Amino acid sequence: MARIGMIGAGSWGTALAAHLAGCGHKVEIWSIMQDEVDMINNTHQQSVKLPGVILDESVTADTDLEKVMRDKDMLVLAVPSSFTRSTAANMAKYCRYGQLIVSVAKGIEEDTLLTMTEVIKEEIPHCEAAVLCGPTHAEEVGAGLPTAIVAGASRREVAEYVQSVFMGTNFRVYTSPDMLGMQVGAALKNVIALAAGCADGLGYGDNTKAALITRGIAEISQIGIAMGGKPETFSGLTGIGDLIVTCASMHSRNRRAGILIGKGMTADEAMKEVKQVVEGVYSAKAALQLADKYDVEAPIIRTVSRVLFGNEAPGQAVEDLMLREGRIESSGLQWQ
């Protein structure tokens, strides 16, 4: 049995807490909001963000960050990516040397272009940072549906420990040393999912979705490999796997927001309607900066940014994409 502190009581943190408790681990959840803590302690569920998922009675919650972090084998940092740095900064003074912190947020920090584990290491240099990501909707994990995910760390023994803690009957965990590639794929797929949602909102079909997914993973891979990620990562669970599920599922808040934008809402209006953090909106600016920094064409990412921040109409954006100059699909292929 592992002693785990879950830092964040959103849908993903709650789903992981339910899973880990079901595996026999002792889980304590931190939230900055007293009403969330009371809800979890009194009703054993997060009925606002993950209704229907009942937590084991052994799972407790507290607003005292130091208490939740104390004497834990593992801390899981499950706040939205836009709050990762501020939360990590608050954690630093309570964090013992070598403390394992597993990041499960998906995003690239806009100001620094750092991944979440890089942000954590900046704020808590004395910790051991790892990452857990893949095609995993909180609603399905909370319901115990079969899921596969990847644990990434710089050291094999750390990744294998995370794997052993999270592995369960309906939760298969693979390992990877490519934390950078994993996190780039996890963050940038949210931007492509916004485009896929826009296409749905405009009434386009499966052909459009297939094109966006396929060309989207090409853009993600080009940026990720230029940054130092490994090609194999982008053809795996945290690359094409995560992109497929985020573009296709109505559990995806990025796709749902994209649908609303395609129907005429602004990004702000869509986020208010979804009522959850839409990571793709925050990641779009970082994705555009990365494309510029590494000289990647990235037409889908650039088009999404124009729709979000440049007031381009989604219908016009699709037309612009379709009418770009013709080119070969893969520049690595040569004519005879």
Task: Give an account of the 3D structure.
By secondary structure, the protein is of the alpha/beta class. The chain has two domains: 3-177, 3-Layer(aba) Sandwich (Rossmann fold); 180-322, N-(1-d-carboxylethyl)-l-norvaline Dehydrogenase, domain 2 (Orthogonal Bundle). The protein has helices at residues 11-22, 34-43, 65-69, 84-92, 116-123, 138-142, 156-166, 179-201, 206-227, 231-234, 237-248, 253-262, 267-274, 279-293, 299-309, 314-322, and strands at residues 3-7, 26-30, 60-62, 74-77, 100-103, 128-133, 147-152, 171-176. Strands 3-2-1-4-5-6-7-8 form an eight-stranded mixed beta sheet, sandwiched between helices. The model has no long low-confidence stretch (mean pLDDT 95).
Features:
about 325 residues, Rossmann fold, 8-stranded mixed β-sheet
Tally of alpha and pi helices = 16
Annotated CATH homologous superfamily of the largest domain? NAD(P)-binding Rossmann-like Domain
**What does the largest sheet look like?**
8 strands, mixed
- Tell me which oligomeric state these chains represent: single chain
Measured on Cα atoms, how large is the radius of gyration? Answer: 20 Å
Strand content: 5-15%
List low-pLDDT spans: none
Average pLDDT across residues?
95
Under the CATH scheme, the architecture of the largest domain is: 3-Layer(aba) Sandwich
Tertiary shape: globular
At the third CATH level, what is the topology name of the largest domain?
A: Rossmann fold
Share of helical residues:
40-55%
Number of domains: 2
CATH class of the largest domain: Alpha Beta
Query: Which structural class matches the secondary elements?
Result: alpha/beta
Give the spatial strand order of the biggest sheet. 3-2-1-4-5-6-7-8
Number of strands: 8
Instruction: Compute the separation of the termini in Å.
Output: 60 Å
Order of helices and strands: EHEHEHEHEHEHEHEHHHHHHHHH
